[in-house]
Design goal:
By secondary structure, the protein is mostly helical. It is 72% helix and 0% strand. Helix 8 packs across helix 9.
Length: 352
């Protein structure tokens, strides 16, 4: 097992290098880089947004029209574009090896500080949404499998299909209309992770305020993953319940609870654990962007989107590095969870 873990950790380095290299090449080919953004701001063109599709500025020659060439050179030097692309790539990789992500082009702060500042909102959303999804979906899926075909199975499946069909952002807007002032009910806030007077609250007050702000956004994120995981759990248990070892266990006089949780659970949960890394990655890095925007949460998803629009390359690549590293580590943790669910799994045997 140790050799497998070390091998997986060693593979993280080349994986990160390839991902950074591919994205670096793509970014260099994209129009409207930071130099053009800065020139556009000086010229007052489109608020500096000169991304692809804009006819206002296309390339340095057109963007710099009417500006002093020395000023253009100073801007290029400021953003590091006085060097060739290979030199910029080498400097970036060398700095990233020491976890130095540089400074934001437009926010005047270190990328590390920006990431640490935005991390609490994203971690809060991802952690609680994933935890609640698993705590609800697994018992519900097991119950649906045990009572397959019953009235409970039918009406719960109907609710699950409705939840699966409704996008998270649409459900978020529905919750806001219903519980955050859109009707006569104004029970929950729709801005920020905590209240303005958070520092003045007691410990219990801070905890209550924190969960009060998270109630609607976390519920919005849970709705889609909850449906998928419940059906996956039910199908996994139904598949295991029909196997011969279950029939044998029942014939030996074992209780239904012992059969279900002592034998079936271990085998069925392998599929659930297999989906955990993807579920975490989806919640943390895919599903949170729109939720962060709708509920005015200052998280990593929103920051990364704004950095990509503004062509703030240090923030873009710093976020990409953190997201990729985190995703690879989650996948490794998911593999290790296999051995906790079923100790019979031996990753060392894969090399045999």
């Amino acid at each position: 097992m140790l050799a497998y873990v070390l091998r997986r950790l060693a593979l993280i380095v080349p994986t990160l290098l390839v991902i950074l290299l591919v994205n670096f090449v793509i970014v260099q080919a994209a129009p409207g880089g930071p130099v053009e953004q800065a020139i556009a701001r000086l010229q007052g063109v489109g608020g500096g947004n000169v991304g692809g599709g804009s006819e206002a500025l296309q390339g340095n020659s057109r963007a710099s029209r009417g500006l002093d060439p020395k000023l253009i050179q100073d801007i290029e030097r400021q953003y590091g574009f006085d060097k060739s692309a290979p030199e910029r790539l080498w400097l970036m990789l060398k700095n990233y090896a020491t976890l130095d992500f540089g400074n934001s082009f437009f926010k005047g702060a270190k990328v590390t500080d920006l990431i640490l500042d935005k991390l609490p909102a994203t971690l809060s959303l991802g952690f609680w949404a994933t935890l609640i999804t698993y705590l609800v979906s697994i018992p519900l899926g097991i119950r649906k499998a045990v009572r397959h075909g019953s009235a409970f199975d039918m009406w719960s499946s109907t609710a699950i299909v409705i939840g699966y069909a409704m996008p998270a952002f649409l459900f978020a807007m529905f919750l806001i209309v219903l519980f955050a002032g859109g009707t006569s009910l104004n029970w929950f806030p729709v801005r920020g992770l905590v209240s303005d007077n958070f520092a003045e609250l007691s410990l219990l007050g801070k905890i209550a305020d924190y969960f009060w702000h998270l109630a609607l956004p976390v519920t919005s994120l849970v709705i889609g993953g909850f449906a998928t995981l419940t059906i996956l759990t039910k199908n996994a248990f139904l598949n295991e319940i029909t196997r011969q070892y279950v029939v044998t266990a029942r014939a030996k006089g074992l209780t239904e609870k012992r059969v279900l949780y002592g034998h079936v659970f271990r085998n069925a949960m392998l599929l659930i654990v297999a989906g955990l890394p993807q579920a975490l990655i989806s919640v943390f890095f895919a599903g949170s962007l729109l939720i962060e925007v709708i509920f005015s949460l200052d998280g990593l998803g929103r920051m990364s989107y704004e950095a990509a629009v503004a062509r703030d390359y240090p923030v873009v690549f710093g976020s990409l590095f953190i997201f990729t590293l985190f995703g690879l580590l989650i996948k490794l943790v998911g593999d290790l969870c296999y051995t906790l669910v079923d100790p019979r799994i031996d990753f060392a045997a894969r090399n045999a």
